[in-house]
């Protein structure tokens, strides 16, 4: 459920950003923008957020998302439209997506830190019962009663 919520947030934000840049300034159709947003959102969530962000920093994950966004928008734009200035459309869109991704990554890392803190806090406050083991329960000297009973 958590992944679905993150994907929906990413999809809506990328749709707004790409809809403004590609739809208004470069005359992409709304269907083309939705298609590019869906592919870019899925790939960038899997590659950038689940793999790269978990093992590296926010800056590296944002740079990877920038490169991925540029390549996806440029390659899909070549197949979908006959835009003359596709390089600048891809570059501007990738920069805008990277800015959004930077703040999205900060949100994800803050959310993960809060979950870890809650887990640690919850584990510390649980009562931990332990049995007592001491010399009184296991005497060092043999019991006198045992030797008297064994002789009978």
Account of the 3D structure:
- 79% of the residues lie in helices and 0% in strands.
- With 152 residues, it is mainly alpha-helical.
- The mean pLDDT is 84.
What are the SSEs and their pairings?
Blueprint: H1 2-25, H2 30-55, H3 58-80, H4 86-124, H5 144-151
Helix pairs in contact: 1-2, 1-4, 2-3, 3-4
Keywords:
152 residues; 79% helix; mainly alpha; single chain
Quick structural gist:
It is built from five helices and no strands.
Number of helices: 5
Number of strands: 0
Task: Name the helix and strand elements from N-terminus to C-terminus, one letter apiece.
Answer: HHHHH
How much strand? under 5%
Distance between the termini: 72 Å
Principal-axes geometry comes out as: rod-shaped
Structural class: mainly alpha
Q: Give the proportion of residues in helices.
A: over 70%
Biggest β-sheet strands, sense, barrel: none
Radius of gyration: 30 Å
As residue ranges, the low-confidence spans are none
- Average per-residue pLDDT, rounded, comes to 84
């Amino acid at each position: 459920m958590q992944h679905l919520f993150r994907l929906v947030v990413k999809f809506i934000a990328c749709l707004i950003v790409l809809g403004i840049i590609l739809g208004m300034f470069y005359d992409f159709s709304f269907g083309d923008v939705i298609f590019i947003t869906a592919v870019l959102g899925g790939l960038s969530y899997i590659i950038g957020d689940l793999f790269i962000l978990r093992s590296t920093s926010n800056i590296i994950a944002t740079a990877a998302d920038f490169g991925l966004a540029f390549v996806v928008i440029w390659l899909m734009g070549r197949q979908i439209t006959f835009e003359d200035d596709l390089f600048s459309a891809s570059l501007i869109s990738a920069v805008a997506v990277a800015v959004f991704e930077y703040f999205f990554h900060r949100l994800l890392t803050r959310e993960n830190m809060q979950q870890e803190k809650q887990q640690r806090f919850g584990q510390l406050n649980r009562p931990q019962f332990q049995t007592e083991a001491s010399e009184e329960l296991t005497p060092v000297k043999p019991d006198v009663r045992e030797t008297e009973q064994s002789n009978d």
